[in-house]
Amino acid sequence: MAVTEAESRAMTRALELALRGPRGQNPQVGAVVLSSEGEVLAEGWHRGAGTAHAEVDALSKLPAGSARGATAVVTLEPCNHTGRTGPCALALIEAGVSRVVYALEDPGAVSGGGAERLRAAGVSVEAGEQADAARALIGDWLIAQRLGRPHVTVKWAQSLDGRAAADDGTSQWITGPDARADVHRRRAQADAIVVGTGTLLADDPALTARADGALLPDQPVPVVIGSRPVPADAAVHRHPHDLLRFETRDLHAVLADLHARGLQRVFVEGGPTLASGFVAAGLADEILAYVAPVLLGGGRLALTDIGVDSITQARRLRVSEWVPLGADLLVIAHPLDTDIAQEEGI
Fold first, then answer.
1. What is the number of other CB atoms lying within 10 angstroms of the CB of residue 95?
2. d(Cα 133, Cα 126) in Å, to the nearest integer?
3. Which end of the chain is least crowded, N or C, by CB within 10 Å?
4. Residue 26 to residue 71: CA distance in whole angstroms
5. What pLDDT does 2 receive?
6. How many CB atoms neighbour CB 320 within 10 A?
7. pLDDT tens for each residue of 25-43
């Protein structure tokens, strides 16, 4: 059975509702319950770990028995497991819902399988409605579920000849105000922002997301990797979130810890040593290279050793976007040697 116009409109609304939920260890999910005539009966969204899932939230707003014969439109396949809450697939079955339309399959080995359970109970199920829009909403979470670690974006700014700083170490500012504003916007979309102690000691960054000098509502958790101590008066100590310190070179262990904390989107700002470490370890799911039309020369490269000794070992990328930002250019790319690009529909 094809998706109706009413169901398509409901999915658009469900995606809007999903945005009301917090980002974190759980996905942002929205749901709309429609009558057999296509009228909206109830709406719901997931408000965070331990709270009712979107489908149950919507059903809770209806009188008992009034969902019988209804259609549930959900941005993610109803779950099929008992965690802090019960399985949504079972809740829909018990409510008497006769049809479920969802955008994306649940990738979880434990939580997935809700569609199969619904069909086994005689519920009509339609998958894939506005899947691209739903993937854009929770794409990083989907990747994190599949990888078992956060999605990692590695960012750097460079001159046209690939330098991250002049030979004396100065780097502010290689790029212009439009590029820097874009960086702050992307910081606000991340759960954590990561730098090495070298960058922290050299630049004393605040690691906040700002616009016109003011803090944005969403702030990434500051993370510093390295063994050198952080000065007591460092700007990062004035961050809205507490600083996370990792005195290790094991980036896999760092990401495992961040994942366990529910931090799904990691924004690595460098410097070159740390950025190169993530790339060399195969942990860079997305590259953001801000390229300025300036020549610096010298040896302060944006990347150092990434384990490439010959051209046959080159780490090939697929560019997904070229974004002009004033006089600068942002190159957004993904590794070809993983299936991240396919996951993100590139």
1. 20
2. 16
3. N
4. 24
5. 87
6. 15
7. 788 999 999 999 999 999 9
Does the global pTM surpass 0.85? Answer: no
Asked whether residue 336 carries a pLDDT value surpassing 90, the answer given is: no
Residue with tokens 């974004």: 323
Helices (H), 108-250: 114-120, 131-147, 177-188, 197-203
CA angle centred on 143, ends 141 and 149, rounded to 5°? 85
Q: Give the active site residues.
A: 55
CA 286 to CA 191: how far, in whole Å?
A: 15
Close Cβ partners of 122 (under 8 Å, ≥ 6 residues apart): none
CB neighbours of residue 316 within 10 Å: 8
- Which tens digits make up the pLDDT trace of 104-121? 998 865 567 899 999 999
Instruction: Tell whether omega for the bond before 326 is within 30 degrees of 0, i.e. cis.
Output: no
For 25-173, list the strands marked E by DSSP.
30-34, 40-45, 71-76, 99-104, 124-127, 151-159
Evaluate whether 192 touches 258 at the Cβ level (below 8 Å): yes
Amino acid residing at 200: L
* CA 324 to chain CA mean position, Å: 23
| Whole-number average pLDDT of the chain | 89
Largest distance between two CA atoms of the chain:
73
Residue 113 vs residues 73, 88, 119, 300: alpha-carbon distances, Å: 17, 11, 10, 51
Residues in the chain: 346
Burial 239-277 (b: 16+ CB within 10 A, else e): beeeebebeeeebeebbebbbeebbbbbbbbbbbbbbbb
Q: Which two tokens stand for residue 296?
A: 């610096």
Tokens of 257: 């810890």
The tens digit of pLDDT for each residue in 56-105 reads 999 999 998 999 999 999 999 998 877 666 789 999 999 999 999 999 99
